[in-house]
Amino acid sequence: MRTINIIYMKNLNIFSLLVLLACPLAILSCKSNGASTEAADQSAKDSVVTLTANGVSFNMVLVKGGTFTMGATSEQGEDAQDNEKPAHEVTLSDYFIGETEVTQALYEAVMESNPSDNVGADLPVEMIDEGDCELFAKRLSELTGRNFRLPTEAEWEYAARGGNRSKGFKYAGSDNVEDVAWCGDTESGTHPVKGKAPNELGIYDMSGNVDEYCSDEYAPYSEESQTSPKAEAEESLGLVTRGGNFCDDSAPDCRVSRRGYSAGYVFGSLGFRVVMTIDK
After folding, report:
1. What percent of the chain has pLDDT over 70?
2. Could you tell me if 62 and 22 lie in one domain?
3. Angstrom distance (rounded) from CA 280 to CA 277
4. Are 204 and 196 in contact (CB under 8 A)?
5. Are 159 and 97 in contact, with CB atoms under 8 Å apart?
6. Contact predicate 152/230, CB 8 Å
7. Do the Cβ atoms of 227 and 146 come closer than 8 Å?
8. Residues 22 and 130 in one domain
9. Which strand (E) or helix (H) includes residue 160?
10. What b-and-e string marks burial along 233-255, b requiring 16 or more CB atoms within 10 Å of the CB?
11. How many domains does the chain have?
12. Same domain, 176 and 89
């Protein structure tokens, strides 16, 4: 009996030792999983910055830099226009872009006026010219202590395509225009922002609702690879406009590579969103 008891005790001690050794590993594993989840949550939180201007809050979405093909890429198919060619590589650094177009609520909070035809706090501001956009960005920068401006055409398209999370969609977030864009509706006017699905980065209305100003002057593309380009034209047709709008007759006008220009006019279907530069 003594021998058996000794053997039993030895086995019990070995078992206890194994349990004791396993427990810290399990605890470490649990801590590791928790830390991983917390890091992912923090990363998602850091990708959106919420700011307030005179009591109106708005979100800016982080767009991680990278290299992408700009212009008439394969998914655009036969809808691609000559002014979207040649497709060419562009490299961009990190930046933040508006989660939505600038709303009338935000515009009025900053500018103390609202020129829009179709009035509503959550509707995109419209009936504005290039100077209005620049003055808005300047005043918003002063109010928040950040640096705001219009996006370049390349920044606009990269964000519309989903940046480094792009799935190669024809429109900003889908191959089905109705999922992500208000278009082909001349009767109803503009729509409240965030009424359709966002794209891969969580950005809304980059297809449809209102066209959006970019900071580039309208000019032909070059086939050469470029880094952070911004076009200037000898004979300007105005600033580039992007995204399509609610009264465009056809879905192809809302594609991510489609280009237009303002010609110096203001429209009830033309608004803008802003970029916030990364503090160095």
Report:
1. 83
2. no
3. 9
4. yes
5. yes
6. yes
7. no
8. no
9. helix 153-160
10. eeeeebbbbbbbbbbbeebbbbb
11. 2
12. yes
Query: Do 29 and 51 share a domain, yes or no?
Result: no
**Which tokens in the block code for residue 183?**
């278009």
Together in a domain, 263 and 187: yes
CA distances from 221 to 30, 93, 162, 214, 216 (A): 53, 20, 21, 15, 12
Q: Could you tell me the pTM of the whole model?
A: 0.84
Cα–Cα distance for residue pair 77/206, rounded to 1 Å: 19
131 and 12 fall within a common domain: no
Query: Does residue 129 contact residue 115 with C-beta atoms inside 8 Å?
Result: no
For residues 74, 80, 86 and 91, what is the CA-based torsion angle, rounded to 10 degrees?
A: -70
Average pLDDT rounded to a whole number, residues 116-132 = 97
**What is the CATH number for 148?**
3.90.1580.10
Look-up of token digits 């035809």 = 117
DSSP state of 54: T
Residues 135-188 pLDDT 10s: 999 999 999 999 999 999 999 999 999 999 999 999 999 999 999 999 987 778
Range of the structural domain that residue 5 is part of: 1-43
How far apart CA 132 and CA 246 sit, in angstroms, is 22
Structure tokens at 160: 């519309």
Are 90 and 31 found together in one domain? Answer: no
The two structure tokens encoding residue 84 = 């979207």
Let me know whether 39 and 146 are in one domain. no
- Pairwise CA distance, residues 162 & 68, whole Å: 10
DSSP state of 36: H
Contact assessment for residue 132 and residue 149, using Cβ atoms and an 8 Å cutoff: no
CB 244 within 8 A of CB 255: yes
- Alpha-carbon distances, residue 159 vs 66, 148, 186, 205 (angstroms): 11, 16, 27, 11
Tell me the C-alpha distance between 127 and 110, whole Å.
16
